[in-house]
Specification:
homodimer, DNA-binding, mainly alpha, flat
DNA sequence: ACCTGAACACCGTTCAAGT
DNA sequence: ACCTGAACACCGTTCAAGT
């Protein structure tokens, strides 16, 4: 609503105050604080205290800027973990989930903008190495990695959405208002379904399922 | 680019030609043919041969219309399936995936607009009933359903994105251009990773993993 | 009630101009 | 080179008016 503080000093931009890094940092701040739907080139320019077109010296378009923000967030430093291959995969998956939950708009960037494969290269390399070392064959390792990735993305995006819905008291737990004649099981399990919202228990549950399935596959690969 | 055929008859809208159903159908057609990013209220009005504001008699906003389109697409008629609980879950999961692939913009609506739980009630009831009948306890059944749902959403949205990327020859298979010194495993497995794009094999692989994990959980629940 | 016309308050971005 | 000013071609939507 409020566009500018009424008596802002409105100083002219100092020369060379901008750079790709400065712009990405400011964009990240706007995205974190206002959300992706409130992000506009004009809002970003206001935060940078420049006119909107100044950003276009460094990025050709809003989409290109979004790609840069996404790539900055995906450059995860994955510290090596001790333990079984399951433990190592779990650690990486948790790290990716945490990064997404910390910057919820990231899921939108991941599912909206085309990916070349370079952006997720760090976590891909880490997981694929763990799987290869564990003894998975080449195709199984590749498919397992994609499964883990899509699983984490799906779980995280659901989690973000449900916490957003959960904030809104009107929408909270609308399940029990469904007709139990048509949806007997669903209405009966409404309390348990609401339990799946919030916290990491649901994420761990799903991850365990996939890992258990992978253990089974590994035995097959080795046989 | 071309906004209107130059000599279109431009007949006045016949009285009462509109209705929520007619509008949703037209919106669906625009979304299917032009994609969600090209969907505007003005484009929809053009297809309906009315002025943009006519739609607002039936829907308060573009978002409300989007919700109606989403709900129309999620009203799946799930024919009952014979077989094991795994076969039944598989059939429902495949049906949901197919519906999303048929209308790729649906994934955006699902992950963008808040869900109350009513929209997915049909598939939720179906899966939860199968799981309950199979002997899962209440909490496991609830968590398993959410896992299956998020898994399908994640897999489908990845699939859509990868096929879109795959269309673009510039982006195709950029994995082998990565430095193999830093990403030895990733570059070595590039062919196998490219195999995961397209077709349903990757989807089935992931689904099998989850189902295998669930079989394991079921034995624990029963013990 | 249903639909239109004109307008408002936004967008991203082009283009020419300033330093 | 870096940044600005003005403008263009869009948006969704409000509001008053027509039938």
């Amino acid at each position: 609503m409020q566009q500018e503080p009424p008596d802002a000093p409105r100083r002219r931009a100092t020369r060379n105050s901008l750079s790709p890094a400065v712009i990405v940092t400011a964009a990240l701040a706007v995205l974190d604080e206002e959300g992706i739907e409130a992000f506009t080139m004009r809002a970003l320019a206001t935060r940078l205290e420049v006119r909107p077109m100044a950003v276009y010296t460094y990025f050709r378009s809003k989409d290109e800027l979004f790609d840069a923000v996404r790539d900055a967030l995906l450059g995860l430093s994955l510290s090596p973990v001790e333990g079984s291959w399951q433990d190592q995969v779990r650690a990486i998956a948790r790290r990716v989930r945490e990064q997404i939950l910390q910057h919820p708009f990231l899921i939108t960037l991941l599912l909206t903008r085309p990916l070349s494969g370079r952006e997720t290269a760090d976590s891909a390399e880490a997981i694929l190495r763990v799987l290869s070392d564990a003894g998975f064959n080449r195709e199984t390792a590749a498919r397992a990695y994609i499964t883990l990735l899509t699983h984490v993305l799906g779980a995280a995006s659901w989690e973000i959405q449900m916490t957003a819905v959960y904030q809104d008291p009107d929408r909270r737990s609308q399940l029990d208002t469904l007709p139990s004649s048509r949806y007997p099981t669903l209405t009966a399990l409404a309390p348990e379904l609401n339990l799946t919202n919030g916290g990491s228990a649901q994420f761990e549950f799903g991850l365990d399922l996939v890992l258990e399935g992978l253990s089974h596959k590994l035995r097959a690969d080795r046989a």
